Amino acid sequence: MSNESSTLKVSLRNTLHENLFMRHADNPLLSAANWPYPCNTVFNPAATVLSDGTTLLLCRVEDRRGLSHLTAARSCNGIDGWEIDEKPTLLSDPINFPEETWGIEDARIVYVPELEKHVVTYTAYSQGGPGISLAVTTDFHEFERFGDIMAPDDKDSALFPRRIGGRWAMIHRPVTPMGTHIWISYSPDLRHWGNHSIILKAREGAWWDANKIGLSPPPIETEEGWLIIYHGVRSTPSGAIYRLGLALFDLDDPRKCIRRGDRWVFAPERSYEREGDVNNVVFPCGITVAPDGDTLNMYYGGADTCIALATASIKHMLDWLKRHSE
Ligand code: BMA
Known about the structure:
- This protein has helices spanning 3-11, 271-274, 314-324, and strands at residues 22-23, 30-31, 41-49, 55-62, 68-75, 83-84, 104-112, 117-126, 129-137, 144-150, 154-159, 168-176, 179-180, 182-187, 194-200, 213-215, 220-222, 225-236, 239-249, 257-260, 282-289, 295-302, 306-313.
- By secondary structure, the protein is mainly beta.
- Strands 1, 2, 21, 22 and 23 form a 5-stranded antiparallel β-sheet that branches. Strands 11, 12, 13, 14 and 15 form a 5-stranded antiparallel β-sheet that branches.
- The chain is globular and about 50 Å long.
- The structure holds beta-D-mannopyranose.
């Protein structure tokens, strides 16, 4: 898109809405042009802060076959000076894990203090469709793979960082004949999952989040509850639009939704979100929280082509939910 037409699109937009998220001036932060080896696109990164304060992104990298793998990029400030692994950090392993035959995508990282490990959930793609796999790591060099934990068609999963009622809990998004909603499941050992239930349903009809929703980054623990950022996929004659909304769940029983925002809080607006391999997509898989405990850094894929950053105040997000929930 030319600068002129992207300016026009922005100027056609009503700007009176409350903006919770501020895009970083250096966006996009990372793209294939920064990569140390040939690739098509770099997008939808998971994120975490390592014990020495380094921000680590586990980026989805798509090659020219169309298959994806995950590669780590590290930065002292989470904005620039990225050091990117010289070769893929986590490649699919179709021999031992046939569910990864067509690649691995869209990781979410959750640090689990009880295990002293990072738990990485990701989409494993194969002839059976996209399912969920899990691996654990301490350093993002060596990974212990648990293999597939949820059968296709399922994706958009993240673990809660601690047990709830003695069991591990995970949010995910199976596709069923009854719809594409957000679910929670429980496990005694991270391998065997059950007690499945829907926690957030896609709306219907004209709504921005009608028919298809999914968890975006992992849940954020706040004093008021588990805050989640989720994506809603609006289907239009010119393709889908991926936008983001907020919901809050009970700390002790995250099956209970306390509040759900009525409108979206973030949507494709800039040229790097509007145009790319898949137009009109903002897709965050990673967040980090700054040392102030309030500033949220949201790392997201723009148009399935690049990586960008937007920041928000967790307090403002919670206040906004009080004013804009159903
Ligand atoms: C979803 C996921 C994301 C992707 C989005 C838009 O289904 O596969 O990885 O960013 O579609 O193409």
